[in-house]
TrEMBL record:
Organism: Streptomyces tateyamensis
Protein name: Vitamin K epoxide reductase domain-containing protein
UniProt membrane topology term: Multi-pass membrane protein
Organism superkingdom: Bacteria
Molecular function terms, GO-annotated: oxidoreductase activity; quinone binding
Length: 82
């Protein structure tokens, strides 16, 4: 989560984006998302039973978060550059 904070700060407040940081973000997004989904699905992270359907829905549509996340970051970067 600290990486996400640094993403936003780097793209908006600090105004400095290095290629290494962008590459790390690109790798961290799916790593974080799919690790979290795996842990939720295998109950490593305990959740109440009423949240189980939401977890199954997230697992079924696992691709949505990265597909939305990457363009949002690209838009933040483009907004900062222009």
């Amino acid at each position: 989560m600290l990486g996400d904070l640094l993403e936003v700060l780097g793209a908006t407040e600090i105004g400095a984006l290095c290629p290494y940081c962008i590459a790390v973000w690109a790798a961290t997004i799916p790593l974080f998302w799919y690790t979290t989904l795996h842990n939720l699905q295998h109950e490593v992270i305990p959740l109440p039973a009423r949240w189980r359907p939401a977890t199954e829905l997230a697992v079924r549509y696992h691709w949505v978060v990265p597909v939305v996340w990457y363009p949002l970051i690209a838009l933040m970067i483009l907004k900062r550059v222009w």
